[in-house]
Amino acid sequence: MLRTQLSACLPKSLSALSPTASTLEDVASNHRGLARVILKKGKAQILKDGNPMVYSGAVDRIKGRPAPKTGDVVLVSDGSEKPIGWGLYNSVSMFCVRLMQLEEEARRDPSCTLNMEKLLEKRFSAAIDLRRSLGLPSSDTNAYRLINSEGDRLSGLIVDVFGEVAVIASSAAWVEKYRPQIESVVSKVAGVRHTWWRSSVDILKEEGLEVSHEKEQGQPPLAQKVKVVENGVYYLVSPEGQKTGFYADQRENRRLISSLSKGKRVLDLCCYTGGFSLGALVGGAHHVTGVDSSMSAIELANENIHLNNLDHERISFVKEDVTEFMKRALSRKEEWDVVILDPPKLAPRKKVLHSACGMYRNLNSLAMQVTRRGGLLMTCSCSGAMTQNRLFLPTLQGAASMSGRRIAVLRQAGAGCDHLIDPSYPKGEYLTNILLRVS
């Protein structure tokens, strides 16, 4: 048990400290050369409330010689220089510090204060306990998210578990710095026998790091495909595929679609490897069509049909641009009872929101038109900028007007229960799924 292994690593001298000795100021006095990031007046409260991101614009000055380097542990203080927490510094990113622990937490439990290795152990132990309480993993689901960045208070780190394989996705400089320690802790998770590291190259450039995909290629060999089960449906996952290789965050939504598909004609747009499609067919759909522009995804989706011994007469996957597919379907006056539209991230940055809204509107307008009147459309956005700026629903209303259809919102949801969202950090929320009745 990882929790038992980790607790044994904590030194008794720290756990025995008195409440007075456990304050950040006192613990920091034993760390020579520790820099202090001092905030501007009025900028501390949002951090005390739980937001882990210290923006560079909120910093008044930095005390310490030599100056801290990217990845260094630093104290964070309010305008009066009173410590409010500690975190990891970045000299380049707009996120000057990613907070790891607040002062009040250090006072309650100083065992991992200013110590990233011990903090990683503590955070992973808590994440494992929480997933177990949610029934993950289980006999019918062994694909789940173990660490969800800010949701598990490890901003910039994602860990998805696929059976015996854990895929680690890095999008912060500190994660790259602590790679050996992270891989060590992940390797101790019960059932995990292999780890695979994925660096978000473009995001890490903004963190001041130049990371190439060659690092991934230099890892120990891993089976090209991993067999997993989710809600009793089997999938082949490629750890080198999109994101971590499988969209585990859609698990509960795939379960919902499965429950709504009996006897229906289902269209799965941007189907990737067939997650929604296979769930719909297992749920009793009359026929399912999946569409994606990626040939490798379509090939894996077809393999998943064989993996589940499903009837090939009732399911088909098509390699085609979804916009062109829907236009051709409209020309044939073809409609479906249930439609799923789960496009890739169209608004990766706030500055492209305007054009992204237009793309979402056009796609959803077409999707509404190929949905039978009285049918269901599940439409999704994984663009955090859309969710955070509350633009997705107004965009859907615009799409309905454009399509000449009326819509009613039946359900609005985010990711599965293991994809924790920190309510004090709304920018961490990125996935929105809306189930519509189209008439």
UniProtKB/TrEMBL annotation:
Residues 35-115 form the PUA domain. It comes from the Eukaryota. It holds the Pfam family Methyltrans_SAM. GO terms for cellular component: cytoplasm. Coiled coil: none annotated. SMART domains: PUA (SM00359). GO terms for molecular function: methyltransferase activity; RNA binding. Keywords: Cytoplasm, Methyltransferase, RNA-binding, rRNA processing, S-adenosyl-L-methionine, Transferase. SUPFAM superfamilies: PUA domain-like, S-adenosyl-L-methionine-dependent methyltransferases. It is found in: Cytoplasm. The keyword Chloroplast does not apply. GO terms for biological process: methylation; rRNA processing. Belongs to the methyltransferase superfamily. RlmI family. This is PUA domain-containing protein.
